[in-house]
Amino acid sequence: MAIVRGEAEQYAQAMFHFAAAVAASWIALLGGVQPTADHSASWTTRAAEHVAAAKKSALDTAVERGIELPPDFLAWIDADPVRRDSVYGCRSNPLPVLLGLRSLEIDLGEEVVRRQFPQLALAFAIQDSYAPRDVKAGGWNDADSVGKVVALPDVSARAPLTLTIQTDPRTPVNTHDTGRTLDRDDHIINFLEDHAPISVETSVRELPPLEYDERGIAKPRGKPTTVTRMVERGLFAADVIESASLQREFNEYMQAHGQDFRIDCGDRAVAWNATEAISDGDLRKRIAAAHEAFHAAYRAKGRMPQERDRAPTASESMAWFVRNDVSPPVASSEAGAHWPRFPLNAPWPVLIMLAADDQPLREREEIWQKFVDTGEARTYGEYIGGIAQQGDMQSARRLAPFAFSYGSIQMMWKDGGVCGTMGNIGARTERILGVPASTAGQPGHCAMVKMDFAEKTGEFSCQGGQYATGGDEVTTVHAGWNYDDVGGRRPMIFHQSVAWGVNEGVDAFVDTLVMRRAFDALSPSERAAECRSFLTQGLKRNPYAMVVAEAAIAAAPDPAMAVRLLDDFNKSLDAAKIPKQRDLYRNMVADLAHARVMALPAPTAKDDAAALLGELARQKCTNAPLLAKLWRATAGEDGFVAKCVESAKAYIASPERTKNRKAADAFVTQLRAWARTISNKNARVLWAKEVLGAFEGQDSIEIRGKKQIDPAVAALRKFADLSDEKK
Fold it and tell me: How far is 644 from 641, CA to CA, in rounded Å?
């Protein structure tokens, strides 16, 4: 579809010929930077020099700080060029990586780190240099830690690590202790635990009853079914929060025991299976206060943990994964039949998401043992409604004694949730089973992604799961893209390019990471002058070097160079014969290039702006604000409106329009971006009505036999203040 990746074909051709006619003057006027004439040092050579300098700097710093590193450890790193470059060349400061690797070796031993799982060790050392673990808080100092002074890994002599899984931390308090004065929390617990059992409906999975044949041999029992039955159990805090009558009992009990504490949570406003959000603000405050009090009592009296277990250290986390890999589930079991889920000797770049896992070991261990015992690998939980958007109400609805804290996967299973919870359950379970995985964002939705390995082809890939509002093109992975020196979240294609880059060759992929560090070390003016040679040589080494493409484009000094870099990128991919189905990779880099053009000063002369517009049309630019800016620069506000109308006509004529919602959603995105460039509301209304005129008699689309108002028409009517669709 022309409008999805650019203007109408006729317009693109016309503008291309016009651009060619004025190309020379355009380059001169825009101050286009020509490729540097000095090619005395290739980027491969520069990368090697960078590694040598970084290694010397790291070792010199270690000596200055009195840090001793065994010669055989350093020799082992140098013995493999890829390992050497990974340690010294993939971060601007390699010392934390070097010391992190040594720390792992001290804890886990040479056999594990040097011979059995060197790639996993590299993944942990490199990942932890981006996001050091905050073991006290049970989490990460995520991307915010980049650039901050953090404690270096400990490489002092110590005994090898003994992997210890924390046990249930709860120590029940005797709430009837006559040797002390009972407090409010004692009385809360006593009311709950001394209360007569209540009958509740519950669902359980049961096998069908046994049947026997005429020989007295039991027949196969078939699959288990879900059975609903009434059972008796003790009283939970959630039961009191749900029931007005129990609240009255509770209030009377507390008053009788000298406690000035009352609750008023309504009747069945928040029930065990409630899904509706609480709209009454005052009621919500009362329920939240009751939840806070009951939760505090459960924690204070040892019925729930005081806090979530601490996160494991890098050594503990790696040791746990190694233990499971060297002592896998029995091959004949359901779990063993699908083991391993992902190879832990895979190249380190595809293991980064796994090394980033900070789930406490006790939480992991329970899920792991269920998998070993029964083959259970639950990657989805109970999906609930609007109440999931109110964390305090969701917690109140099922508050009960529990061995795990909020934030744990176990609590997510118990309480349920919506897409964010499901994505977390999926990604966390995958990581527990040794698969690199992460949650991921989509428009109005949370999904998950994971690394996959095809044993037959030996290739890696990054696959999406639990998608709902689009495909890879609208997915942003929540795991840090820790392959540059910045980290942070990036679109799905960035992580896919890592897998593809490793498939091309891990040595070539690591080389491009080192090239990026060498490029980053240049001054801004040097990067501007060298960006083109850096791009072409980096992509020649590995066509999936997103770190190279991203940095080169960010260094483009003017629109002309940004356009050239995109052309060079596409030529490199053509030469490498990149598969057609990976156009999302091309599109992402095109978006980066055009965003760079948008960020740079635009040409002031109309002819220059028109020439640039022609180049962008040839490249099928979809950057709506950029197109709007140049349309106005070449033909004023009327020209901008005319181009929007022309784009609408191209969209209407496109065969992609009725294939699925993707084309319509893409055009709606452009319309909204164009609308945001019109600050005056009246002008925006007139613009929307003008563009709507292109849809006269064609305001509906039929997708898979279902007729509906075109989403673009609905968006334009909203901008034009035409809420009644008949208008």
Answer: 5
